[in-house]
Amino acid sequence: MSELVSTRIRTVASKLGLPHLAEALNQYAQRADEAKLGYLDFLDLVLAEELAVRDDRRFRQGLRTSKLPHHKTLDDYDFSFQPDLDPRKVKDLATLSFVDAKANAALLGPPGVGKTHIAVALAVAACRAGYSVYFTSLDDMVKNLKAAEAAGRLTSKLGTYLRPGVLVVDEVGYEILERGEANLVFQVISKRYEKGSIILTSNKTFSEWGQVFGDEVLATAILDRLLHHCDVISINGPSYRLKNRLKAIERDTNVA
Length: 256
Prior knowledge:
The chain is built from twelve helices and five strands. The chain has helices spanning 3-15, 19-35, 39-66, 87-93, 97-100, 115-128, 138-150, 154-162, 179-192, 209-212, 216-227, 240-255, and strands at 104-108, 133-137, 166-172, 197-202, 230-234.
């Protein structure tokens, strides 16, 4: 490939928004020569590589804007520590069929059993698949919505929680809500109903949500919309955090 042609291709690639092609052109040409690729095979190679680079760039940008606390995957989750949890149920969720259907997923159980880990792993998978994702604790969401409501910007702020294809709401039940706060949560749930997926974690059973939201009727209305299309997984095993803490104590004791 002549230098003149290479320069022209790089210029056109940059104008088309294909910076990787401009950078890797010589590498592509060398691979084509070594494999004796035909014109169509060479074009297929270039387009496949460019698509992979663009998808990876989009994925990384999606992770940056998702506010996820970490980027752990299901490969990092120790299913052997939770023998009562069927891995197949979690891996079924990881196919994201519920996200495709704009349905929901709920992970219930006591603190420390890995609910947030699984929720984040599902969110990472959704992000990689091209869905927009946003993570928040319930407490943070309520505080932000209350502040926006007081400032007359509630409609605008609601968009933060309505726009993403997947909204992750963590730690439902750790704080008791006032009725006005519960109504703000209801607005998010009802406006997302059958329009976008919610993944939530809670340390409370659904029968306890009346106490959490301070109003049985409002809690029922929230659950009615949330659970209409929802996969529910209960994790009732031991705490990972306690396990790690006990190991650290045991190690320190042995060293002493």
